Amino acid sequence: MFSRKKPSWLEQLVDRGFIRVTAVLASVVSLTVFGIFFTVGFQAIFQGDVSSLLPWNQDSIWQGIAAWNDEETFGVRWGAIPHFGLGFLANSSWNPVRNDYGALTPIYGTLMTSALALLLAVPLGVGTAIFLTEDFLPQKLRATIGFMVELLAAIPSVVLGLWAVAMLNSFLAVALPLHNYLGWLPFFATEPSGPNLAMASLILVVMLLPIITAISRDSLNQVPLELRQGAYAIGATRWTTIFQVLIPAAISGIVGGTMLALGRALGETMAVTMIIGNSMNLSASWFSPSSTIASLLANQFGEADDIQVSALYYAALVLIILTVLVNICAQIIVKRLALKYD
Amino acid sequence: MTSSPHSLSASRLHYNPYALRNVWNRAMNLLAGLFAFIAVLPLIVVILYVLYKGGGAITPAIFTELPPAPGLSEPMGMGNAIIGTIMVTGVAALVAIPIGVGGGIYLAEVAKKGWFAQSIRVGVNVLAGVPSIICGLFIYALVVNTRILWGESFSAMAGSFALAVLMLPTIVKTTDEGLKLVPQELRMGALGIGASRFTTITRVVLPAATSPIATGVVLGIARAAGETAPLIFTALFSPFWPDWLSGLGLLAPTATMSVQIYNFGIMPFAPQVELAWAASFILVVMILAANLLARWLARFSSL
Amino acid sequence: MTSPIAADPIISCDNVTISYGTFAAVRNVFLDIPKHQVTAFIGPSGCGKSTVLRCFNRMNDLIDSFSMTGRVLFQGQDLYAPMVDPVEVRRHVGMVFQKPNPFPKTIYENIAFGARINGFKGNMDDLVESSLRRAAVWDECKDKLQESGLSLSGGQQQRLCIARAIAVEPEVILMDEPCSALDPISTLKVEETLHQLKQHFTIIIVTHNMQQAVRVSDMTAFYNAVEVEGSDGKVGYLAEYNQTKEIFNNPQSKDTEEYVTGRFG
User: Fold this and answer.
1) B-chain residues within 8 Å CB-CB of C84?
2) Last residue of some domain: A95, A126, A149?
3) Which residues face C222 on adjacent strands?
């Protein structure tokens, strides 16, 4: 017979230590998230660097706060949030000379490029997903197309940006007639002559397509075969089945994928920066150069100092809050809409 | 039989090409096909563009020389950027893999429920949604601006940290999900013969889930290798070879292929633009190779 | 092989052989289904009874590797003729599946959906009520017509699916083991509805349960499977087809007798 030997103290120590270590490693994730909010928030409120939080540092913030009422000693160097308040969000001027900063232009650019991109990418992506889940083509060919669309997601955004720069002239040639005939619409009011918001939206479409297609395809594939059979058995055509049964059953995944794509579009940086023109002038026209929060950061952060850095961090904070809100909404919507099959 | 009231007139079952529903169906078939074509088209065009413009620029010198000064056309190389990308991505993986796999083990094996695990799950989702440029700003504020790394500001190491932040949620998620695929019986079996949790997890559960975890890690690294936004304010750029004397090159700013594409791609000089395409070519080939590798790894899954 | 029962068959199989890829599932079936009667398909697993059933409304079209030779005649028309529209076929030949599969819609919409796409112009409320009544599930769901069909119990869901099928007013209803996922009480209720329904519809039911075949059917077709020479697969065939009481009391073949007395299968 075996006599089960009691685990030695060393084994027990290793076992418990291992569990602790994994817990610590896991908490790094939460710490990082907290750290991101904290540092970005800090830099938006104060100028200077985060090490001034340490009380023993030379120019510690605590000393500044302690010397709050003493005008002689140097006080806290406040950053963008105390300076500009919520007016930052509604101010369209970005003037490093007068140190007057507002993020309305990039906020508008961020929302507009994302909305335009979604408007095109959702029907295209869901349509592709349907095409890949129906039996139009042999299974092998469909799998290949699906893999190709997924590969599109793997192409770095900076490469897509470089490609977009190369394609700019062809785009302008196509866009010019739009301006000539539909120029009375405010969206087409300016003559397309260089990098612009419309081109940035189109390159976002290319980046969002694989996300929406992949997630929609997965959720369509998860709809039980019985539902499709049930619809066919009462004489539904292919597209009646798709629109009335399959899409409603897969809607939580499709909406979730769309929200994820929206989050991605809001924060997409490189490709947009390379093609949007980085203009801080507010314009309703899709053919004029514009900027997004992310492109503003990529474009100006390197050369900014003092209050401008803080203003950029304020804009970054707005971007984080936007994307986190979108992601939270996505999860709530997915939970709400999720159907229960046993 | 044809006189029976139940008998059908011959055409009733026939396909009527002019019936509204059939016209609609054909139109939608066409539309779906068109959409799929449009979705695949950019991939094909981008790949062809990169192959054509970048492939032509690939010479042995690309790997061994430095880029030319603006306005000159000699030498034509980007060896520093290739080394830089490997260095920055490699260190990022070294940082992110242990943390990510450890965190994933915690979520899947140790604490499946409870507020702490739940808050970490939320954290993973939030982190996955944080735009990549924010990772750059975060590390800038934390590492570059404070000169916390031996007094250095911009450095390859800072770039690695930013990329590690980016990889972390992917690795945690794939580990968590990969471990969940391992059948419960396997754990029961190991624990049942008196193995400790440490032994069970490291000797039985992890090996069983190697394939899905490795797949996710490879894809995470490939994605990070192409990232630019987290690097432009951390690893910055450099027209020179890595300074091996400062922390094996890790404590100095470094060139990377992705930042090179951004910096050179919008320059008005032809040699620089050509180098941007060459860097795109190498990056895209690397990433396609990583994707094929990931698919190949996924084949070994025993789950 | 078959008895000449139906002078006016609603469906007949004329030397039907069905294959998936290169593998024949069932071969050389000759069969006449009488109108306004319940016909049961019985037999051991893998003998092709569901496969034959799914030919009657071209449900097999959903399977890529499916191929068929021979003819399936519905009221004298070949269902597999090149010009035939499978959608049109399914509007005449409805189906109820093994697992209840209500749509993720309200109970009301589950019924109204099929009627609407079939161009129903009358009073939808009346149609919903009468369909649910005929499927004997009205009392259980009249107060929650606007709730999801998935909120019903399994047996109620299956009767909802029957109601959904009859709302389209097909001539034939195919039932593929409709009670195999249900408890005995629900099964009994479904069986009761079958007796009502056969006044208006022709019903073909696949069942593993021989008592059920005896209880509900007028005609019974017994399918069997034989080993294919030179491979490890089996191929199904129609072994015996007759009035249900003949099949169970006076089977012609030894296999049938052994099967209905429970000695194999």
Assistant:
1) 13-15
2) A95
3) C42, C240
Question: Which of the listed residues A36, A71, A95 is the one where a domain comes to its end?
Answer: A95
Residue C112 Cα, gap to closest chain A Cα (Å):
11
Same domain for A215 and A70? no
Facing B228 at nearest CB: one of A27, A267, A270: A270
Yes or no, beta carbons of B40 and A149 under 8 Å apart: yes
**Residue A48 lies inside a defined structural domain of this protein:** yes
Contacts of A227 in chain C (CB under 8 A): 101, 103-104
* pLDDT for position A1: 47
Within this chain, do residues A40 and A169 fall inside the same structural domain, yes or no? Answer: no
Query: In angstroms, what CA-CA distances link B209 with B85, B170, B214, B300?
Result: 29, 16, 9, 10
Contact yes or no for B265/A166 (Cβ under 8 A): no
The answer to whether residues A65 and A171 belong to one domain is: no
Query: Which residues, listed in sequence order, are joined to residue C31 by a DSSP beta bridge?
Result: C13
Indicate the number of domains in chain A.
2
Position A332 in a domain: yes
Cα separation of A230 and B60, whole Å?
A: 62
Q: In a 10 Å sphere around its CB, with 0-12 CB exposed, 13-18 middle and 19+ buried, how is residue C18 labelled?
A: buried
* Cα angle, residue B9 at apex, residues B7 and B15 outer, rounded to 5°: 120
Q: Which residues of B touch C77 (CB under 8 A)?
A: 8, 10, 13
Note down pLDDT in tens along chain A; length 342 residues.
455 566 677 878 888 888 888 888 988 998 999 999 999 998 888 887 777 777 666 666 666 666 655 555 456 677 888 888 888 888 888 888 888 898 899 999 999 999 999 999 999 999 999 999 998 888 889 888 888 888 888 899 999 999 999 888 888 888 888 888 887 888 888 888 889 899 999 999 999 999 999 999 999 998 988 899 999 999 899 999 999 999 998 988 899 899 989 999 999 999 999 999 888 888 888 998 999 999 999 999 888 888 889 999 999 999 999 999 998 888 888 777 765 543
The answer as to whether A1 is a domain residue is no
Q: What is the CATH number of the domain that holds A172?
A: 1.10.3720.10
Verify that A267 and A311 share a domain, yes or no: yes
Same domain, A78 and A215: no
Is the same domain home to A207 and A265?
yes
Q: What CA–CA distances, in Å, run from A139 to A43, A100, A136, A142, A149?
A: 53, 59, 9, 5, 15
Residues A127 and A64 reside in one and the same domain: no
Interface contact B132-A269, CB threshold 8 A = yes
For A65, A322, B275, C113, the CA distances from A79, given in Å and listed in that order, are 14, 21, 40, 61
User: Does A112 lie in the same domain as A81?
Assistant: no
- Quote the domain boundaries for residue A313: 104-337
% of chain B beyond a pLDDT of 90: 28
Contact assessment for residue A99 and residue A308, using Cβ atoms and an 8 Å cutoff: yes
Question: What domains are there in chain B, each with its CATH number?
Answer: 60-298 (1.10.3720.10)
Rounded-to-integer distance, Cα B175 and Cα C247, Å: 59
Tokens of C39: 């016909």
What interface predicted TM-score (ipTM) does this complex get?
0.89
End-to-end C-alpha distance for chain C, whole angstroms: 21
The closest alpha carbon to C186, from C131, C127, C140, belongs to C140
Structural domain boundaries in chain C = 9-103+171-260
Mutate which of C58, C92, C103 to test chain A, going by most A C-beta atoms within 10 A?
C103
CB contact under 8 A, B130 and A36: yes
CA A125 to chain centre: 17
Suggest the residue from B13, B26, B29 to mutate for an interface test with chain C (most C CBs closer than 10 A): B13
φ/ψ of residue B142, rounded to 5: -85, -40
Q: In CATH, what class is C9-103+171-260?
A: alpha beta
Kindly report the length of chain B.
303
Q: By the 8 A CB rule, do C22 and C231 touch?
A: no
